[in-house]
Amino acid sequence: MKTIVLTRHAKSSWDHDVSDLKRPLSKRGFTDANLVSKSFGTYSVIFDAIYSSPANRALTTCQIFMDNLGLDPELLTIDKQLYDFGGNQVRRFIKSLDDNLETVMLFGHNHAFTSLANSFGDADIDNLPTSGLVMIEFEVDQWQHVSQGETKLFLRPKDFK
Description:
This protein is an alpha/beta fold. It has helices spanning 27-40, 56-69, 88-95, 112-120, and strands spanning 2-8, 49-52, 76-78, 103-108, 133-138, 150-155. The model has no long low-confidence stretch (mean pLDDT 96).
């Protein structure tokens, strides 16, 4: 069995004159990421690897989750393939994961993550909001065979306000 957790970066701030890659989180982004990650921590998921887009907003969201979940920093790999908005790069990335990994968490962007949540999972998700996460389980032994799985969890910041 393979399990993937797709986590969209928290709300970013447009108040800074920086490139898209360097855009920071907004105050609400920090609040929402903390809310969702602390709630997710009650599910006691054990991760084999964590991957993040190199974008500042995704990486900061990832760090908030890792801190609140008490995850070892050694689990984290930053990968430019996750700086993808369409989803094809992320799909290829997932299908190329090491088969020794059972449960992974990815931090990235929309429209890619909403699209993948809908194509991989069995729930109809209109939009994966900022700081939102979807956990999907697959009855396969190899990541290359990941196609249709079961959506086990969908968490949104508004669920905790």
